[in-house]
Amino acid sequence: MYDLETFKPLIKEATKWRRYLHQRPELDYELHGTAAYVVEKLRSFGVTHIETGVAKTGVVALIEGNQRSGPTIGLRAEMDAVLLAEKSNKPWSSTVSGRMHACGHDGHMAMLLGAAKFLAESRNFGGSVALIFQPAEENALGGQRMVQEGIMDRFGISRVFAMDNSPGLDVGRFAICDGPFMAALDEFDITIKGQGGHAASPHRNIDPIVLAGQIIVGLQPLVSRSTNPLESLVVSITKMHAGEAYNVIPETATLSGTVRTLKPGLRDFAEAQIPAVARGIATGYGAEIEFKYRRIDPIMINSPEETNLAISAARNLVGAISVDDNYSPVMGSEDFAFMLEARPGAMIFIGNGSTASLHNAAYDFNDEALPYGIGYWANLVETVLPAP
């Protein structure tokens, strides 16, 4: 196992990669420049088994250990950016208007590239490592698409791991827990169909905007009174669209939002009860509703054995006191959950320090975290795939 000093020589180079990628953000599956840069670096490290075009622009590369016989594990990093105008005011800020790496995927790629360079030189492990550079984590389920295209079977991946940065967690610290670690994500739309007319004669109409307000309030007891307070359910109305004119009550109003939970039963509960509440309120005033519900990301569940391996790798790098192995699950979602449905594995959080939050225009990945991430990946490989 290695301590942090082993990876400090990589800091300058990894910082250069990270800032290059930060300046050139690309979205969803349109990651042609990003993928080409990743492939160029991998080849410069002596990695020869590289497959491109996975899930359109994804990259999977294999590094074999000194002892080639043995299992293959997957290490995943995301590549896509988000639609957001950067306000970090850093010299390496995004050069693409309205797009930025606001979730640290530039840092995730740089850490995995640093690990790739180290592992390609040392090869002090038995078996193989599959480096998974994934497209479209933010909005388009790239993780699911990679699984559907068969990467687990095609590359013989038996376990899969990921790492995400966490603003607010000190640099040099890691956090993880066994079991549900990130929430399922569902989306819904409620269209209220009333009766439009002149705003001066509300008694002759069925106002869908008033009913929308009642539905918003009516949904809150699903969390506060119908759900066990020791269980996690978040129902958020995030969009409302109705009307075009000051003096017209519209025919319809649409509410949209998300459901997040850490238990499958609560997903079923929300899908059944949200339309029941909305329909009850609307029917009482002579309106109707149309309801659509979409299950997006599953619950991301860390498997026990792989969580313990991740904990061991992190502790060997930074010491036991700097690894929180009973971290509280978070209600954000992650399409890495699809990979964890396909294979056992675990995600760990790495500290990003006191930076702006994710998806904030002032956010920037903290380059001081780079050697910790590189070191974690290297230690994890040698923990899971010890040399014979």
Can you give a write-up of this model?
The protein is α+β, with helices and mostly antiparallel strands. The protein folds into two domains: 4-181 and 299-384, Zn peptidases (Aminopeptidase); 184-297, Alpha-Beta Plaits. The chain has ten helices and 18 strands. The strands form five sheets. The protein has an eight-stranded mixed sheet with strand order 1-2-6-3-7-18-8-17, sandwiched between helices. A four-stranded antiparallel sheet has the order 12-14-10-15, with helices on one face. A two-stranded antiparallel ribbon has the order 4-5. Helix 4 runs parallel beside helix 9, helix 6 (208-224) packs antiparallel against helix 7 and helix 8 (304-318) packs across helix 10.
Summary of the model, kept short:
This protein has ten helices and 18 strands. With 388 residues, it is an alpha+beta fold. The protein folds into two domains: 4-181 and 299-384, 3-Layer(aba) Sandwich (Aminopeptidase); 184-297, Alpha-Beta Plaits (2-Layer Sandwich), CATH 3.30.70.360.
The counted number of beta strands is 18
Mean pLDDT over the residues = 97
**What percent of residues adopt helix (DSSP H or I)?**
25-40%
- Gross morphology is elongated
Tell me the span between the first and last alpha carbons: 14 Å
Sheet with most strands = 8 strands, mixed
Give the CATH H-level superfamily of the largest domain.
Answer: Zn peptidases
How many discrete structural domains? Answer: 2
Kindly report the oligomeric state of this protein.
single chain
> What's the alpha carbon Rg, rounded to whole Å?
24 Å
Distinct helical segment count = 10
Tell me the structural class: alpha+beta
Strand order of the largest sheet: 1-2-6-3-7-18-8-17
Using the coordinates above, name the CATH class of the largest domain: Alpha Beta
